[in-house]
Specification:
Shape: globular
Largest sheet: 8 strands, mixed
Radius of gyration: 17 Å
Low-confidence stretches: none
Helix content: 25-40%
Number of strands: 8
Strand order of the largest sheet: 1-2-4-3-5-6-7-8
Structural class: alpha/beta
Number of helices: 9
Order of helices and strands: EEEHEHEHEHHHEHEHH
Strand content: 15-25%
Amino acid sequence: MKYEVIEEDGFNYIEAGAGETLVLLHGLMGELSNWEPAIDHFKQNYHVFVPILPIYELPLLTLGVKSLAKYVHKFIKFKKLGQVVLIGNSLGGHVGLVITAGHQESVKALVLTGSSGLYENAFGGSFPRRESYDYIREKVEFTFYDPAIATKELVDEVYKSVNDRSRVIRILALAKSAIRHNMAKELSKITIPVSLIWGKQDKVTPPEVAEEFHQLLPNSELNWVDKCGHAPMMEQPEIFNTYLSTFLDRILLK
């Protein structure tokens, strides 16, 4: 990762650029580097923040989607960011939804890509056999349309996480929290502009999830990314950035 992580008052984050504020939220197994193409692109015209979600730092008893949302909202207040555009992938999208539902006045617009909150098929429906590197590689490849995106570096990081007992307990706790915290009944209250940017071949949060989000969010648009799985900003960054740029131009230049 070429961007320096800033540590400040209990928060760890990346900051780049200037202008209207974008807050990028990573997923449960996501690395900050997942957002690198987006940071590179948007820092030219926007003030970009990527807070590290404290998945391995928050007390285990309170760890869940709501506690992560509270943490990010505190970060936004601490940095005095005012109204922001939240952009979340997978669990990060779910965190963005919770923040928006509770603090709509702080969020100018919301972008969801492969977001949980309605349904997800994490690890292809089975918990990983931790000892098997090949199994972990298959499950990381499952995330993408093109298995080549699952580099050895990425597989190594996931393998390390699921073989660390304290980490795996936290991963399980958060995955269960995401499944329990279904947001279907809350989505109609989110009236700000929402852009759904979704991989057509997403197997973790399949296309029907995007369609349901689109139906339930009253002010939403749905953009499909072909030949793409669960992380469009990694797998098809140019298409993702084009959709996001068009959306931002429309909502911020009104």
